[in-house]
Amino acid sequence: MSHRRKDSKRAYVIAGSGVAALATAAIMLPYANAGQQEQQGPRTMSAKAAAAMGTKLADENGSRTAGWFIDSKAKRLVMNVLDEETAQRVEQSGAQARIVQNSKAELKKVSDTLANGASMKGTAWSVDPRTNKVSVLADSTVDSGEWASLNKTAASMDGMMTVKRSGGEFKRFHGAGGAGQNGQGQQGQQGQDDQGAGAAAGQGDQDAGNDAGAGDQAAADGVLGGDAIFAGGVRCSLGFNVQVDGAPGFLTAGHCGNEAKNWTSDEAGAQALGTIQDSKFPETDFAIATLDDAQAEATSAVNLDPLGQGQGGTQEITGAAEAAVGMQVQRSGSTTGVTDGEVTGLDATVNYGGGDVVNGMIQTNVCAEPGDSGGAMFSEDKAVGLTSGGSGDCTQGGETFFQPVTAALEATGATIGEGGAGEAGQQQEQQQLP
């Protein structure tokens, strides 16, 4: 009886509120139900929103998670968890939960074992959240004995480590000045006569430009992410234009910054560009420079046609973002132009040999070649990485490793675009989750 009395009372209230209230209730109810259903399971979202949610869920659930990745086809965040309770919490937040066997702590022990002596020149490793294992790559310089040793180590890791070959040789991707900047996608060294003629021609062009009123500021204003930069016979690529203590500057690779202090935007050395203020390599791989013309406008954008092939276009960069496995990315560099692919691993370690070991890298299947070092890796309007090195080329493909931009910004105090130093941009993405 009481149930009927409640229903009658509710019906009386609705009827007494008039037709307008009834129409409003009819409209709002389906949307309310849809919202409740959306929160009960995995939902589609943008890559930026997925990356922000992955970081948030990992922080909230701590050791009960074991990494995450973006399913780019389904447009979903996939979160590795260790138990059913955590899986339910993750799915209530809108991600897809996947219960896995190996914890973050266990996988870190595998990485530590490699770092403490089981690695060798020509190897790289990272945690692969898709397989829930540590993935080790061995390049062509790893001989049969070393290959056998790696596989023996993998066998002792109780299924937490895989080993596979990588084509080519792991190397840093800086190049010699003058080659590969004409859309050929290959690296070489010009003869002394050609260099002399090129330098003379470049100087003549610069003189003519100055006579026409185009000075160093115009040159600095026009240099964007992916464009060639030169110093001491070395060619690299500019990463991203930044602000350093209110002054214009740029980021590039640390192994490029180690080569020389003063950089120009032309091979002849006539167009002064910037001066290196700090350079870190090995262990990490980034350098920061301030522009020699403090009044120059360092546009926060990437050149989508750094080879000058007439395709034109730029990509505005509004801030920095953390990489995520499965994130679709593009790279711009002065040897191979713009190429694309996706992030395949995080917190990667690469042993280039000779004591040159870098940590905390972003691993991708985006190709690159010598001269592309320092170049911009980005996802839509967010800066993600600086080109470090890898194996293969843009004919046969290979693996390429990038210094995370967010770490470089944090270390240098620089800011990029409107999104600041990366962390603020990441927080903003979290606030805008769908």
UniProtKB/TrEMBL annotation:
Keyword Protease: yes
Pfam families associated with the record: Pro_Al_protease
InterPro entries per UniProt: Pept_S1_alpha_lytic (IPR004236), Pept_S1A_streptogrisin (IPR001316), Peptidase_S1_PA (IPR009003), Peptidase_S1_PA_chymotrypsin (IPR043504)
Superkingdom of source: Bacteria
Key words, A-Z: Disulfide bond, Hydrolase, Membrane, Protease, Serine protease, Signal, Transmembrane, Transmembrane helix, Zymogen
Gene3D superfamilies per record: Trypsin-like serine proteases (2.40.10.10)
Start-end of Gly residues biased regions: 175-188
Residues that span the membrane, as ranges: 12-32
Region named Disordered: 170-217, 412-434
Ranges of compositional bias, category Low complexity: 189-217, 424-434
Stretches assigned to the Peptidase S1A alpha-lytic prodomain domain: 102-155
Family: Belongs to the peptidase S1 family.
Protein name per its UniProtKB record: S1 family peptidase
Phylogenetic lineage: Bacteria, Bacillati, Actinomycetota, Actinomycetes, Kitasatosporales
